[in-house]
Give the backbone structure.
Amino acid sequence: MINKNLEKLIDLSKVKIRAERIALDLTQEEFSEFVDIKYATYKSFEQNGKISFENYIKILIKLNKDDQFLKFLNSFDFDKKKKKFNIKKKIKKRKKKK
């Protein structure tokens, strides 16, 4: 399930960012210069979705999507006690399986 969701997110990310690049009428090389990452890195991202988180954030910033991403991140409301409880619960389950 996680792998399927991961694939979906990666595919959607590379498709959307590629669409933004095309809308800007830039080649992959021109776009990589625009976002200040290596051409090979960006080309690889469009082909297989692999990119560092830092470079992904650079792209979002240059495309003026960083505010939307910040809103997304700020929408997470973690209760520290709940988080600790869930982590402990997962650890106990793993120990039981062994």
